[in-house]
Each structure stands twice: as C-alpha cells, then as structure tokens.
Specification:
It is built from two helices and ten strands. It is α+β, with helices and mostly antiparallel strands. Strands 4, 5, 6, 7, 8, 9 and 10 form a seven-stranded mixed sheet that branches. A three-stranded antiparallel sheet has the order 1-2-3, with no helix packed on it.
C-alpha cells in the first residue's frame, strides 16, 4: 500500500504527494469541466440538479471531461446525460480558470440538433428553456453559470471571437502551493 507524504521532489519547484516507499510522484492537476449554453429562439436551456453539490439549483448542462474524450464530445455527452438533448456546438464561448477548486471550465455556445427536444436526465430534477428575464438568478448553482450566461448575452447569436474569461471580481487568487513571486496580475 503506497504511503504518500507531501514533499518537494528533487528538481521540482512545488510540494507534491510522493510515495515514501517507491518515490512515485502523484501529480494533482486541475480537472476539466465542459458545458454548453444551449440556445433556442432567444431562450437558454437550464437543468435543475438532482445531485450534489448544489442539488435543487439550476445549472447549464455541464460536467467533468472523461478520459479519451475531446472537449466537444464531452460537452455533447453532458447535454445528453443531463437534459436528453442532442446538440450542435457553435464554438467556445468562455474559458474559466478556477484555481481555488482546481478546475478549468470550457463553455460552448450551442443549439439543438433539429427542433428543441429535451427531458430531465438521471442527474437532473427538471430541465427548462428560459428567456433572459425569467432566468432563476437567485437559484443558480455556481458562479460560472452566471458568468457563462452573461458571456452568451454579450455575444448573442453573433460571431464568437475570443472566449470570455474570469470576471474581474472573481477572487481566484494564486494557488497556495505556487512558488513565491510567481503570481501574475489578472
């Protein structure tokens, strides 16, 4: 059974989890989340979460990328799993770096393949299309859902250009294990 300890491996600049028996380094890297702002006739598809965290709150169809998937395939899979929606992707709408929880989030803008068809998948209590003024803002599951919705509002159906990034007010800060002096201005 491995016996992991935190230490600075030779030639490294960060403290890591290292097996005290064999020296194996367990690199802990951010996880990739993929999701889509699915748009239909000025409305956006939201899913009410059936699972924790934030069960009962509204989110975009999104989740963790699986090994062996492209980010596009992962976003389409998540739309199917959470909203039983078959979608096409227009391109990357936003890219969020959320170091405090070890995530990189890639959010697409997309649309239904054909007429809008959706239903709650096993991870959702309910799914619905919302016009901008009817979005349940006080019941959104995560800050990045709000960010992605605002990014969509900013571009609408127009050309996507450069992806939106973390808003200025996001207090992500530097990673606590970053070497001193490596913080960058955001």
């Amino acid at each position: 059974m491995p016996d992991f300890i935190r230490r600075l491996p030779a030639g490294d600049e960060r403290e890591r989890r290292v097996c005290g028996t064999c020296g194996f380094i367990d690199y802990e890297n951010p996880r990739v989340v993929v999701g889509t702002v699915v748009v239909d006739d000025g409305c956006v598809l939201l899913c009410r979460r059936e699972i924790e965290p934030r069960r009962g709150y509204w989110t975009l169809p999104a989740g963790f990328l699986e090994l062996g998937e492209t980010i596009e395939d992962g976003a389409r899979r998540e739309a199917w799993e959470e909203a039983r929606a078959r979608i096409s992707l227009d391109g990357v709408l936003a890219l969020y770096s959320i170091s405090r929880i070890g995530q990189v989030q890639v959010m697409f803008r997309g649309r239904f393949d054909g007429p809008a068809a959706f239903a709650a998948g096993p991870e959702s209590q309910d799914v619905a299309l919302y016009r901008w003024d009817d979005i349940p803002w006080d019941s959104l599951a995560f800050p990045s859902v709000r960010w992605a919705l605002h990014a969509w509002r900013a571009v609408g159906d127009g050309p996507l250009g450069a992806p939106a990034g973390n808003p200025v007010e996001d207090p992500r800060g530097a990673h606590p294990l970053a070497p001193a002096g490596t913080e960058t201005a955001q």
